[in-house]
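Example 3.2
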Amino acid sequence: MFVFLAFLAVNACGPDETISGYADTSAVYHLVSIDGVPFSETATISFPEKGAVSGQGPCNRYSASQNTFYPWFEMGPILSTRRACPELNAEAAFFAALSEMSLAEVAGDVLLLTGENGRELTFEAR
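Structure, written as tokens:
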């Protein structure tokens, strides 16, 4: 038990090796396209602290955990508010694609998330 607690203490104090250690934690990344097709609604993602993901879909705010080492990307279950709006189909498409992402690449103001099945989400920080 002591070894496990010591591991947790060292890991908590170590550098952030998740995406939040590489992306600008103050940036809000806006979705530009899904699979190369421009996304006409508003959707965002940010990484405010180690292991945390949050953002805004076309209708609802969401959050999730993300504890995989960069460049890997794996979100925990997406928790979102439940507000209805005309853009619910666009939001469902965004959340579905987001849940399929497995790799992240941060290059300047651009965040690229890709999935093993060839899908991709392109974001720009604003």
